[in-house]
Design brief:
single chain; alpha+beta; two-stranded antiparallel sheet; 9 strands; globular
Length: about 160
C-alpha cells in the first residue's frame, strides 16, 4: 500500500457518486445513507481507485455501507486493503463489530467477506424488493434478500 493514499473526505466535499455507483444501483439509494457516513477514498497518484463509506450504527457497531474498486484495480487485493482499513478504524474507535450487507445473489462478494474474516449473521428478507423501484439482477438472479455479515473484534 506504499504508493496508495487513503483519504477521509471532509464534510461538504463532492460525493464520489461515480465510484459509489459501482457498488449500489442508484444515486437515490446512495442518498439514503451517504450523508450519515464517513467516506474514504483510496488514491493511486492522482486517480481515485476505490471508495468506502462507513456508518456508525451505535456505540458498538460500525457498518460498511458501500465499498467499491474501479475495474482496472479489481482482483489485486485492493478490496482487502479497504477491509483492513475499516477494521483498523473500527478498532481505533473501540467498536465491537464491523458489519456489512450484500445481496443474496452476490456469491463473489459473500466469499470475499468470508475470506476477510466475516461470518454470516443474518438476512434482511425482501430488502432489494422493498427498497428499489425496479427489480435488480445479479448473476442471472433477481436480488431479493440482503445477507448480513459481521466481523467481531476480540476483547
Amino acid at each position: 500500500m506504499e504508493h496508495f493514499t487513503f483519504k477521509l473526505l471532509e464534510p461538504g466535499s463532492k460525493i464520489p457518486y461515480d465510484l459509489l455507483l459501482l457498488a449500489d444501483e442508484t444515486t437515490e439509494a446512495i442518498d439514503q445513507y451517504i450523508f450519515n457516513c464517513d467516506i474514504y477514498l483510496l488514491i493511486d497518484g492522482e486517480q481515485n481507485i476505490a471508495v468506502m463509506a462507513l456508518h456508525k450504527n451505535n456505540d458498538t457497531e460500525l457498518e460498511i455501507k458501500n465499498i467499491a474498486v474501479i475495474d482496472a484495480y479489481r482482483s489485486k487485493g485492493i478490496g482487502s486493503i479497504l477491509i483492513n482499513k475499516a477494521k483498523e478504524i473500527a478498532q481505533a474507535h473501540h467498536y465491537k463489530k464491523l458489519t456489512v450487507g450484500t445481496s443474496d445473489t452476490g456469491f463473489q462478494q459473500i466469499r470475499f467477506y468470508e475470506k476477510n474474516g466475516f461470518l454470516k449473521t443474518g438476512v434482511k428478507k425482501n430488502f432489494f424488493i422493498e427498497n428499489y423501484p425496479e427489480p435488480i439482477y445479479e448473476n442471472g438472479l433477481q436480488m431479493r434478500d440482503m445477507v448480513l455479515l459481521t466481523h467481531h473484534f476480540s476483547e
